[in-house]
Amino acid sequence: MITDKNPLHEVDAPCYQAVMLVGPPGVGKGTQGKMLAQIPGIFHVSSGDMFRELDINSKCGQIFQQYAGIGKLVPDHITIKIWQDYMAAKVREQVYAPESDLLILDGIPRNIVQAGLIAPYIKLFKVIYMVCEDREVMFKRIRGRSLKENRIDDSEEIVVRYRWDVYKRETEPLIDYYPQDLIRIIDADTTAADVLHQILSSIVPIQKNHFKSPFM
What we know:
By secondary structure, the protein is an alpha/beta fold. It is 47% helix and 15% strand. The chain has a single domain (16-133, 175-208), classed as Rossmann fold, CATH 3.40.50.300.
């Protein structure tokens, strides 16, 4: 199996100004990410989109294919390197301007190891922690979305609960990892518009205080 232990990034690599979305499967991160991405001055990056756009002929693409082909997660340092390449490409393509766009990270970092690896390359303003107390509501959302998108296997009960267990074990500890003054709890057990309103109340002041307007 191909491995890569080269340094993740050059010493003078850019530092991206970011907000992170965290929440369990079915809480609505994808929905919110899509809506946020439509707002000028915001650039949304989901781990799913990042992997789907990966060039399978690249070195990282070949590594990803090898792990995905046997049903294993890509090693953390490779995931972060893929993210770095993805961000650099978006800057080159001029679809993301770090000086004027707030970066929304959705699904990355996935765990504390990735958080440590990505830390030198982001300035993190907030961790948006989306919470829904009713687990069964989230399970229902996952199953419904999977059927709508024709991903029948993902709608099976065992798969839904496995994804939940992985989140609780791997991702939720991020909430204790980061300084608590960065955490903003969002009530996600409400309408999508209300959730968006709560999120915007946190990130609009960040845009005003730290970014120049994309229209200037």
